[in-house]
Design a protein that fits this description.
heterodimer; A: FAD/NAD(P)-binding domain; 5-stranded parallel sheet; 18 helices; B: alpha/beta; 46 helices; 52 strands
Chain lengths: 476, 1482
């Protein structure tokens, strides 16, 4: 194990943030790198618990104590081997995951948890830098063909897994580039797209074929065709229908769903142009206090917004765990992302009542639930980051009750099959389309698990692939 | 009757033994009467069952009473020495004429004739119903020679005839000899004389009489197991008897003797099945003697002293032992053996000296020997000397020569009987004599592949192999085991996992192989054995290995042994232990036929003269898989035993699957002489290559690893009380759990499967799964070691009942007081439909047809009274955690347990019921930390910890870093100085000792219930029966999975069995024995839910202990780092910084127990029962399901057998016999004087039957005074005579016992401030400093007070003394062992191993010969002359010593103090001095 008394000797130390004035001038990632020694010390804080709750907190079941120990001993290769064995994309989760593992870290009961997510990031980056195996060698090809619809983290994880055991995998993406939310939903300053491209190159070389602008369900590529042409189909559609705020004035110009705004911004960054929905010099209101809201916040800062207010309808979460959300669950506590350090105002317990404006939004009327006062704020760009309500199923003909759960997600059986659907090849589903809007780590876990089910179906015997989660399961 | 879990082969016994001999050789009736008196005075060492008039057995051996026989037989009696008497027990249902005809026919064949039968007159009316039901007829037969040319050797002819008769006719001969006659039966000691009229006949005479009284755990009445046997009377237990018997069977064909009238083949089986260990021992002694060795020679061959490490022994004596070690393995175990052939009578004590053995010689030339002194009144003026038998020593009275032959002379003579030394030099070989050749081994490309092939997990490398190689120690873990029972596991588990280690509890002591290393030996010999019944140079043509763990080089030497000229006569053959991985038929069939074929091959090789067989699994290939090494070793071993070839060759294992200590121990236990764990060595090299093991070369790391294995094996042996590997080999000291009967019968004969379990198909399947994963992985499957999550939970590993979700739910439920969440928790634990973890997972409740409404069921409050928390010491856990549990349990009306660390006096204050921190259960463990009179008086229950679930048979160690000042105070020790709990209680080496401790504790608090905590293993029911006979009020059966602060991983996982088994066995055995109603049965071991409680109740438990779960409720998250003092939740730590993090509260614990009780109520309602009492022991309310494993025939129905439906729980109180205590004659006056603080003095005579004198009075005084202490010497009791055991035990301040005479064992045990003075009788003429005056284990665990003894005392004086001042004039071995405080002054000779494991206190030794270094144990000591303050102190003590005892030795020292003071040395440990100096300097 790592260092027995490490947790008593070293405080938690995450990576430093690049200074706000500097980072606002570019789109590069926020964090500075940590030295290997600094990371090793953070690995030494791991207590190598008899019950590593982190491993349960992580839907992937990452072998956290094992790689922490390797990192403490500077065995980056062994750490990478362990990490990639349970997580196809630690370079993504190391940047984007809200780290339920850290919520479950035993050290977090009375101290600060181990910087698990950052260690994961470092392990992944070392793996790429030093050329450790990040792709599985495939000895034999099975000759089976699998179509994966959707190229977000769930779809990519399923594809990577299925390719690793020798199936031919084709990924269909309706957009013009592979990556789903990773591509256009996550801002560059949280995930530089080169990181995504790096991974896609690895996947392509391991036998995954990507198809862009392929909108499955349209006339060109109906689902039946995939069922006919492939031995199995995996739907990883994501939960893409935005939750709207149905108040007067929401139709006004200048009011956008967050994803529309972020996609435009991401394309602009890629193309080196300014975004069609540029926030420069605007008074921006972001409705929604979650991660997407924070992504919008960082983006509008970089676009040069005049002012930003982020509004959350719920009250400000407590700083410490409330009793009804005990350790090791992921409690709703007050958190700041780096974007919050960059400026802007946060309001809680604030309900949106109305948007005002002639054609374009000019003001927003809200009520402060704490004081019950009505406040009017000027707004010439409003971004609605109120979450998502489920997958888009109509086009695929999956909107009947047989296919949809009470939570408006796709209904699958215990083997991830959309069992109500006939057709020549079975159809599986995973990710947010099944679970509903969730964390990237759940998407990857579901993609892996669905891949195991697909492989078992195709091979006729229990799959060697890991199936870390069951459909609709919870960590705690 | 359906098969229960009880098996008669589990029975144990132990005893009192005595002897009287008249050196003048004059046969007298007085000698016999004296012996019978001794027997009656040892009655407290025997036992009775539920039927008090049926004893366990008593008997007497006398010389042939020629004069008496002439009177009763008349003129037919031939001249003395020309006849023999056969004393038969004949079953009463027999056809006697037929039997007599059959007997006579055998005698006739041997040239003997019967001269007459005599019905032995007996008085059956004295018998109790049990013994009477099985009473045989006693018949004596007078026999003489019929043939005269050639005249048969009468004794040998009688021996052979008797063997043949006993094997062919249903009779038993108490004796059949020309020299001795034995009367014995299933009697109590006093009944012996009443039963046999002959013994009351004044005409019966003898110059020798040996008596024995038996304390047995046995359930079935046996008349023939009473002792003495034909040559010996044994007090103790032969731990290795299973192996010894097997080896004797194996030897049968190699035995031949020219002097016996019949060939050996006609005498077989030499070791009769179904007899006791002592009986088997006797049979072999008899064989050796009849074949020509002298009786002492035979006995010393079988019970050699510890010669291997002795530095003082003469070369010739060592050669004698070394030579005989190649002939026969020791019969190992606690033994005081008295032996007699009618001409000599003697006694020998085993190497550990764990049985008391005292003797005294009178001026009128009589020798008396007994387990205790004072058993026979002797005029003190008549005493010439008093002695005791020392460990490994022999003592012989030769009646014909009319003198006593001492150890030195006897052994010196024996050593000269043959040129043993010359023979050894010529013939015995060592591997060091030759150079290692290079061994060709297959080059497997990938070590990982091989590791996978042999079932290594990532944990094996990281947690087992690496630490062993790094620091040469076995890895330590904590918090018990809550993972899947191997037989239920879905992972391919090594076959090793299906055997658990047996361990000693109660009936014999485990040993401390570290502190008492001098008695251990890891030496083994390999090569063939010669005829045991003769001696020659060739007998020692063997190779000696210093350790059974072979390096690669050593293996290479053995493998190519024939290439060395020096090694002529040895031939080695390597046999591959492999089977076809693929092919026709089932895996099991291929495996079985491969084993058969290679057994045939081994037999052929051995027949052709090969004397070393290497069984190797080196050459696995994609086509050939490895046979599990254990299966291989046992199959070959037993096949060779069956063919009577086993002693012709040695078995050596070259095994890839061996990596843990447990694995090596199993291979040795099943017959291998040595083991080479080659893959573990290669794995170590790989760890070095990958940088996971640093700072060591491959050679060093492998050496360290081998050494750790070696040490670990010794530790496993010592848990069973076995000291030598030579006798451990083949001893099979294991229990099979969850293996099919067919597998056991075929490959592990002698093992019974009580439950069935995995079949050969399962075993083959596991191997083939691993083989396939290594050689033919599926596409995408990584060639990588799995982490099976056995020691630390892993998502994809073995199931643990405490896992992230259950811990989370349990904490949430009890903190938020949410019964709904609690139910989620219990569902997660109880529902094992997704994966079985526990045996109870296969049981389900049979709901009643008429369930009750919940409100009809007894309240939670009344159920909670049955709950207690487990024994966790203050020290292993923090004050916060410890008192949280105590407060919660007190609020609930339930009980918490102090654990073994004592309890602060301030916690005895119970005035505030909300915050009462007094633990109701006080634990008394082997370390006796903080066990004072006050501690005991403040108990509701006193628990004697015989064993602990996580590490049964082991002691404990609390590292110096955990002894913070507040812990040291409670434990009466020094801060920062480490503490040791010895493996055994040094006052419990046998069951009669336990009875004594129970009696002592009952005296120390007559209001408390006395618990005895046992750990589940096969035979625990039988032990519990003995414990019930020893008058325990409560018996606690602990599961193997219990938590602990620290235990070797091998013990955590591989010792003991689940409580379901032990509890059911205990309940059934007690019930069938009529003892169930006498005791309360308690259970603990990972109880987690109401369902666990109700199942335990149905299996017979009345009370329930919980430890891990309440800790989890208090915040424990199963870090399993208790042993590191880094507990991050402030529970298992003393570090103030970490203790701040403790988040537990009594309310949470209260919620837990209320929820559990509420669940119990729900189940009771379901069962239609109003109270728990209604369902206790009613296993018919349970049903059993089977596993879904088609390759397992596991069937738990034997657990559900109900034996005596009317006896389901305790209903009568034990009779402790306190009424007979001597104390009553002065107790009330003494207590009333004490309460007024006025002096009180009283004088009385004392006898050995007066045990624990002063204890009852002491406890009454402590109770009446509360926190107050009396001034010294306020209450003075003068005693005259021989006091019984435990004189003045736990006596508090203010009491003084002055004994004139002598004392038995355990005087001053737990002394708590009182004073004990022992001096010889005023009429005694012997020199006190040369004579023994008090027995073994004086002042054990004393915390304060004074013990002055003018005379020599036995072994282990001052063991675990933590504060008393002890002065003696000489001691035996192991004095001051484990001492942590106090002062001991020794004014005379000391034995070996002085101050072993001592950590504190001061020893002053008068050492004019400057021989201290010869006696001192290995350790770090400061040995200094007396400094100024010591001078004052010692002189002051000696002055007072002389005042009290008139010690001539002390007087003469004081008389020339200026000179004599130079002869004193002060001995302290360096650590103690360092800490003391630090404390002084602040």
């Amino acid at each position: 194990m790592g260092k027995t008394t490490g947790f008593l000797e070293y405080p938690r130390q995450g990576p430093r943030h690049r200074p706000v004035p500097v980072r606002l001038r570019d789109w590069r990632e926020v964090y500075e790198t940590q030295s290997d020694d600094e990371v090793a010390v953070q690995g030494a804080r791991c207590m190598d618990c008899g019950i590593p709750f982190c491993m349960q907190g992580c839907p992937l079941g990452n072998r956290i104590p094992t790689f922490n120990d390797h990192v403490y001993r500077s065995h980056w290769d062994q750490a990478a081997e362990q990490l990639f064995d349970t997580n196809n994309f630690p370079e993504f989760t190391g940047r984007l995951c809200p780290a339920p593992c850290e919520s479950a870290c035993v050290l977090g009961i009375s101290d600060s948890p181990v910087t698990i997510e950052r260690i994961e990031y470092e392990v992944a980056e070392h793996a790429f830098a030093y050329g450790f195996a990040v792709a599985h060698e495939v000895a034999t090809r099975t000759g089976k063909r699998v179509a994966v619809v959707g190229s977000g983290p769930a779809g990519l994880a399923a594809a990577a897994q299925l390719a690793s055991v020798g199936h031919h995998v084709h990924v269909f993406e309706r957009s013009d580039a592979i990556g789903g939310l990773l591509r256009y939903g996550i801002p560059e300053f949280k995930l530089e797209k080169a990181i995504l491209d790096r991974r896609l190159a690895v996947m392509a070389s391991s036998g995954v074929t990507f198809h862009t602008n392929a909108n499955v369900g349209d006339a060109v590529t109906p689902l039946e065709n995939l069922q006919r042409d492939f031995d199995a189909v995996v739907l990883a559609l994501g939960s893409t229908r935005p939750r709207l705020i149905p108040v007067p004035g929401s139709h006004l110009s200048g009011v956008y769903p967050a994803m529309t705004y972020l996609e435009a911004a991401n394309r602009a960054v890629r193309d080196g142009q300014s975004s069609p929905i540029d926030a420069r010099d605007r008074h921006v209101i972001i409705l929604g206090g979650g991660d997407t809201g924070a992504d919008c916040l960082g983006t509008v800062h970089r676009q040069g917004a005049n002012s930003v207010i982020q509004i959350e309808i719920l009250e400000r979460p407590p700083d410490d765990r409330p009793d009804d959300q005990p350790w090791p669950t992921m409690a709703r506590i007050f958190k700041s992302s780096p974007a919050h350090d960059e400026g802007g105002e946060r309001r809680f317990s604030t309900e949106t009542l109305e948007f005002h404006g002639a054609e374009r939004v000019e003001r927003i009327v809200v009520r402060d639930d704490a004081t019950n006062e009505t406040v009017v704020m000027s707004a010439d760009l409003v971004l609605i980051a109120a979450g998502f309500v489920g997958p888009e199923l109509d086009q695929l003909g999956l909107s009947g009750d047989a296919f949809v759960t009470s939570r408006a997600t796709l209904s699958v059986d215990g083997d991830w099959r959309v069992d109500a659907l006939g057709g020549p090849a079975p159809v599986f589903a995973c990710g947010d389309a099944v679970r509903g809007q969730s964390l990237i780590v759940w998407a990857i876990a579901e993609g892996r698990s669905a891949a195991a089910a697909v492989d078992a179906h195709l091979s006729g015997h229990p799959s060697v692939l890991a199936a870390p989660v069951e459909p609709y399961s919870l960590s705690w | 009757m359906t098969k229960t879990l009880y098996d008669p082969s589990f029975e144990h016994d132990a005893c009192g033994v005595g002897m009287v001999a008249d050196l003048s050789a004059t046969p007298t009736n007085a000698t016999i009467l004296d012996a019978l008196t001794i027997l009656e005075n040892l009655e407290h060492r025997g036992a009775t069952g539920s039927d008090v008039d049926s004893g366990d057995g008593a008997g007497v051996l006398i010389q042939m009473p020629d004069a008496f026989l002439r009177e009763v037989y008349g003129d037919v009696v031939p001249p003395a020495g020309e006849y023999g008497i056969a004393h038969w027990m004949i079953p009463k249902i027999s056809n006697v004429p037929d039997i007599q005809r059959a007997i006579d026919a055998v005698f006739e064949r041997l040239g003997l004739t019967s001269l007459g039968w005599r019905d032995v007159p007996v008085d059956s009316t004295v018998l109790g119903p049990t013994s009477r039901a099985s009473e045989p007829a006693f018949v004596q037969q007078l026999i003489a020679r019929s043939a005269h040319e050639p005249a048969p050797d009468l004794e040998r002819a009688l021996y052979c005839a008797r063997k043949v008769i006993e094997h062919t006719v249903d009779v038993y001969a108490s004796s059949c000899s020309p020299h001795v006659l034995i009367y014995k039966g299933m009697l109590t000691a006093p009944q012996l004389r009443q039963y046999f009229d002959d013994l009351r006949d004044a005409r019966l005479t003898s110059a020798i009489a040996v008596v024995h009284s038996r304390f047995s755990t046995n359930v079935l009445p046996r008349w023939d197991l009473a002792q003495p046997f034909r040559y010996i009377a044994h007090n103790g237990e032969i731990n290795t008897v299973r192996g010894n018997r097997n080896w004797m069977t194996a030897r049968e064909t190699s035995l031949h003797s020219d002097v016996l009238p019949l060939p050996i083949a006609e005498l077989t089986p030499l070791v009769t099945t179904g007899l006791s260990d002592s009986a088997s021992f006797d049979e072999v002694v008899e064989l050796l003697v009849q074949a020509g060795r002298s009786l002492p020679h035979a006995v010393l061959m079988m019970i050699p002293e510890a010669w291997e490490r002795s530095t003082f022994m003469s070369e010739s004596r060592r050669d004698f032992y070394r030579y005989h070690a190649g002939l026969m393995e020791p019969w190992d175990g606690p033994a005081s053996v008295t032996f007699c052939d009618g001409k000599v009578v003697g006694a020998v004590l085993d190497r550990n000296g764990l049985r008391p053995a005292r003797y005294w010689v009178t001026k009128d030339r009589r020798v008396v020997f007994a387990s205790e002194v004072g058993v026979l009144p002797v005029d003190p003026a008549n005493i010439e000397r008093k002695g005791r038998l020392q460990p490994g020593r022999v003592f012989l009275v030769d009646i014909e020569q009319g003198r006593i032959i001492d150890d030195e002379e006897l052994k010196g003579e024996l050593a000269q009987k043959a040129p043993y030394g010359e023979w050894l030099r010529d013939q015995q070989r060592s591997l060091d004599e030759i150079d290692a050749p290079t061994m060709l081994t297959p080059n497997h490309a990938s070590i990982v592949r091989q590791q996978m092939n042999f079932g290594y997990s990532e944990e094996d490398l990281r947690l087992i192999v690496r630490p062993m190689a790094q620091v040469s120690e076995e890895p330590i873990g904590s918090m018990g085991s809550d993972s899947t029972v191997p037989t239920l596991s879905k992972l391919p588990r090594p076959l090793f996992d299906f055997f658990t280690q047996l361990f000693a509890q109660v009936t014999n002591p485990p040993l401390d192989a570290i502190r008492e290393e001098l008695v251990t030996s890891t030496r083994v010999t390999i090569g063939g054995e010669d005829n045991l019944l003769t001696e020659s140079a060739n007998h020692c043509h063997q190779i000696v290995l210093p350790s059974p763990i072979l390096s690669i080089d050593e293996l290479a030497k053995i493998r190519y042994i024939e290439e060395f000229e020096r090694m002529e006569g040895f031939t080695t053959v390597v046999i591959g232990g492999l089977f076809e991985a693929h092919g026709v038929g089932k895996g099991a069939e291929r495996l079985a036929s491969a084993i058969d074929a290679l057994c045939d091959q081994v037999v052929d090789e051995v027949r052709c003269g090969t004397n070393i067989i290497i069984l190797s699994d080196r050459n696995t290939t994609p086509e050939l898989a490895a046979i599990p090494s254990l299966l291989l070793a046992s199959a070959v071993h037993h096949r060779l035993v069956d063919e009577h070839l086993r002693t012709s060759a040695a078995l050596i294992m070259e095994s890839g699957d061996v990596r843990e200590v447990h694995h090596v121990a199993l291979l040795l236990g099943f017959g291998a002489s040595a083991v080479c764990p080659y893959l573990a060595y290669e794995s170590i090299d790989a760890l070095i290559e990958t940088g996971d093991l640093t700072g060591l070369s491959s050679f060093e790391a492998r050496y360290q690893y081998g050494k750790a294995l070696n040490k670990g094996v010794v530790k496993i042996m010592s848990k069973m009380g076995v000291s030598t590997v030579a006798s451990y080999v083949g001893s099979q000291l294991f229990e099979a759990v969850g293996i099919s009967e067919t597998v056991l019968a075929r490959y592990f004969p002698g093992f019974t499967s009580r439950l069935g379990g995995i079949t050969l198909e399962h075993i083959a399947g596991s191997v083939l799964t691993l083989h396939a994963s290594a050689y033919a992985p599926a596409p995408g499957e990584r060639v990588e070691l799995r982490n099976n999550g056995e020691y630390q939970w892993r998502r994809d590993g073995e199931i643990h009942l405490f896992n992230p979700r259950t811990v989370q739910k349990l904490q949430h439920a009890t903190r938020a007081k949410r019964f709904d969440i609690f139910k989620e928790y219990t569902t997660l634990v109880d529902d094992q439909s997704h994966g079985l973890v526990t045996l109870r997972g296969l049981m389900s409740l049979v709901p009643s047809a008429t369930p009750l409404a919940l409100d009809e069921v007894e309240s939670t409050a009344s159920i909670i009274k049955r709950f207690s928390t487990g024994a966790m010491s203050y020290g292993s856990i923090s004050e916060e955690a410890h008192s949280t549990l105590a407060i919660a349990m007190n609020r609930l009306g339930a009980k918490s347990n102090t654990g073994e660390g004592g309890e602060d006096d301030e916690r005895f204050d119970t005035s505030d019921p909300r915050w009462n921190r007094r633990s109701a259960i006080k634990q008394v463990a082997s370390g006796r930390f903080g066990v004072t009179s006050r501690f005991l008086v403040n108990a509701d229950d006193i628990q004697i910890k015989m064993a602990q679930g996580a590490k049964p048979g082991e002691g404990g160690q609390l590292a110096g870093i955990k002894i913070w000042p507040w812990i040291a105070k409670t434990r009466h020790s020094t801060p920062g100085v480490g503490l040791i709990s010895p493996p055994p209680h040094h006052d419990i080496y046998s069951i009669e000792d336990l009875a004594q401790l129970i009696y002592d504790l009952k005296n120390a608090n007559d209001q408390a219930r006395i618990h005895v905590k046992l750990v589940s293993e096969q035979g625990v029911g039988t032990i519990a029966a003995g414990v019930a006979k020893a008058h325990a009020d409560v018996i606690l059966i602990s599961g193997h999975d219990g938590g602990t602060g620290a235990a070797p991983l091998t013990s955590l996982k591989h010792a003991g069995t689940p409580w379901e088994l032990g509890l059911a066995e205990t309940h059934q055995t007690l019930a069938s024995n009529g003892l169930r109603s006498r005791v309360v049965l308690q259970v603990d071991g990972q109880l987690k839910t109401g369902r666990d409680v109700i199942i335990a109740a149905l299996l017979g438990a009345e009370e329930f202990g919980f430890a891990t779960a309440p800790l989890v409720v208090s915040g424990c998250v199963m870090m399993r780092v208790c042993h590191l003092d880094t507990c991050p939740v402030g529970i298992a730590t003393q570090n103030p910084r970490l203790r701040e993090r403790f988040t537990g509260r009594p309310e949470f614990v209260e919620n837990f127990f209320e929820f559990i009780a509420e669940e119990v109520r729900e189940y009771l309602a379901l069962l239609g029962a109003r109270t728990l009492d209604e369902v206790i022991g009613d296993a018919t309310r349970l049903s059993i399901t089977s596993t879904d494993d088609v390759n397992s025939d596991l069937d738990l129905s034997a657990l559900l057998v109900t034996v005596a439906p009317d006896q389901r729980h305790q209903s009568v109180k034990q009779e402790h016999g306190l009424d007979g205590a001597l104390d009553w004659i002065f107790l009330h006056d003494a207590v009333s004087a004490a309460s007024r603080t006025t002096p009180f003095r009283f004088a009385t005579a004392v006898r050995n039957v007066n045990r624990a004198v002063g204890t009852l009075t002491g406890s009454a005084i402590t109770r009446s005074l509360g926190e107050r202490d009396l001034p010294d010497d306020l209450i003075e009791i003068d005693l005259d005579g021989s006091s019984g055991q435990s004189l003045g035990a736990f006596m508090p301040h203010g009491m003084t016992l002055r004994l004139t005479g002598d004392a038995n064992d355990y005087a001053g045990k737990g002394l708590s401030g009182g004073r004990i003075i022992i001096r010889p009788s005023l009429e005694a003429t012997f020199a006190s400093e040369e004579n023994i005056i008090a027995g073994n284990v004086i002042g054990y665990g004393a915390t304060s007070g004074e013990i002055f003894v003018s005379g020599v005392v036995g072994e282990r004086c001052g063991v675990r003394n933590s504060g008393a001042t002890i002065i003696v004039e000489g001691t035996g071995d192991h004095a001051c062992e484990y001492m942590t405080g106090g002062v001991v002054v020794i004014l005379g000779a000391v034995g070996r191993n002085l101050a072993a494991g001592m950590s504190g206190g001061t020893l002053y030794l008068y050492d004019p010969d400057q021989s201290v270094y010869d006696h001192l144990s290995a350790g770090v000591y400061e040995i200094d002359p007396l400094e100024y303050e010591d001078d004052e102190r010692v002189r002051g003590l000696l002055t007072r010593f002389v005042e009290e005892t008139d010690s001539r030795r002390a007087e003469s020292i004081l008389g020339d103090w200026r000179c004599e003071r130079m002869h004193f040395v002060r001995i302290e440990t360096s650590e103690y001095q360092r800490v003391r100096d630090e404390l002084r300097n602040g």
